[in-house]
Amino acid sequence: MAILAAICLGVPKFIKKIANWFGLNDEKIRRVRVLFNSNPTKIVAVSKIALGIGVAGIYLAGNSRVPFSKFLIICLVVSAIQYVFYLGLGLLFGSAYLHINQYLNNFASINIIIALAIILFLLIKYLLKKYESTFRL
Fold first, then answer.
1. pTM of the model
2. Which of 18, 53, 66, 135 is the most exposed place for a label (fewest CB within 10 A)?
3. Do the Cβ atoms of 8 and 68 come closer than 8 Å?
């Protein structure tokens, strides 16, 4: 229902104020509309698949005046493909989740150690530069 309201009612005034605060003027929105209207299927599909930008895709679809029926068909097809893909992954790797979880834990641990080492290196480098004159003989 929120999607239908966003597409039918347009952009509320408080969202326009927030957009102006971020520097989104009418010219930039017009350029995005042209891009969106040239490839609405691809952009809506990517916004559905990519995590974290789904709301932006819905907003752009409403702002670009994509017909609701077209938007709904694209969303349903992409969602059906996603469900089949994730269901297939679950069937293929259902028994291997413990091994995959262990590999992901090892990968995360290594990444955390590398990040901490980089932070420590940068901190030591900063402190040596800051106190370089103190340590000179």
1. 0.51
2. 135
3. yes
What CA–CA distances, in Å, run from 21 to 14, 16, 25, 53?
A: 11, 9, 9, 20
Sorting pLDDT into bands at 50, 70 and 90, what band is 105? very high
Indicate if the pLDDT at residue 95 is higher than 90.
Answer: no
Amino acid, single-letter form, for residue 96: A
Checking phi first, is residue 63 left (phi over 0); if not, alpha (psi -120 to 50) or beta?
alpha
**Per-chain mean pLDDT for the chain:** 82
Domain boundaries defined on the chain: 2-135
Distances (CA, A) of 78 to 5, 25, 35, 44: 21, 31, 20, 9
Distance, CA of 3 to CA of 13 (rounded, Å): 17
Whose CA is closest to 8, among 68, 96, 76? 68
Asked if 7 and 62 count as a contact pair (C-beta separation under 8 A), the reply is yes
Instruction: Report CA Rg, the chain.
Output: 24
